[in-house]
Amino acid sequence: MSDLFISLLGPFEGTLNGEQITQFRTRSVQALLIYLVCEPRRPHQREALMELLWPGMPPASAQANMRQTLYRLRRLIPQVNSKHSEEPVPFLLANRQTIQINPDAVYTADVQSFTELVEGDPVQAIALYRGDFLADFYLPGSESFEAWVAARRADYRRQALHTLESLTAVHIQQGDFEEAELLARKSLAIDNLRESTHRQLLEALARSGRRQEA
């Protein structure tokens, strides 16, 4: 068994077969893993990945960095369970032009689960949201990677806030003001300037008889 779990909502966490994944030799190794996990459904051109991780670097140097980074990531996560076989399969597939996560690889990534659950099971989706996307990760020297992270972070935050607001409204309507208060406060911990959430919190407090506190 080769069970791989990657959590990116909040601080980075990764486990393989129950062991923490922490021995990244460079930040680029971790950044490559993060990007491929978030964009798993297609092969990625090596040139595009090199420009993302090492923008402006001479091609020969970027190619050498990519070979070393890919080698280290393959050493870190060599094989995982297969969707179609009892035998493990390589986690990554790569050739001279492209790199991608093996479509046959079995792994769990919270960002994918979160997006799938937002509509179908919003309570479970919110349980996965431990904080801002990649709250503790920064890739020095790559504005391109940081811009990609910022866009992803904003999108996941927007989904979380919208989901929390919808759940809070449901609990207020059902008269479950204690749960509504907890959800509103969780939302404000993400964005304490969100006026609609402040209004929900005030309503939950007032309707539960805590008008002075409201």
Radius of gyration: 21 Å
Q: What is the count of helical runs?
A: 8
- Structural class comes to alpha+beta
The largest β sheet comes out as: 4 strands, mixed
N-to-C series of helices and strands: EEEHEHHEEEEEHHHHH
Strand order of the largest sheet: 3-2-1-9
Low-pLDDT runs = none
| Portion in helices | 40-55%
Q: What form results from the Cα inertia axes?
A: elongated
Integer average pLDDT: 93
End-to-end gap? 53 Å
Strand content: 5-15%
Task: Give the beta-strand count.
Answer: 9
Which characteristics define this entry?
4-stranded mixed beta sheet, 3-stranded antiparallel beta sheet, alpha+beta, 214 residues, 8 helices, elongated
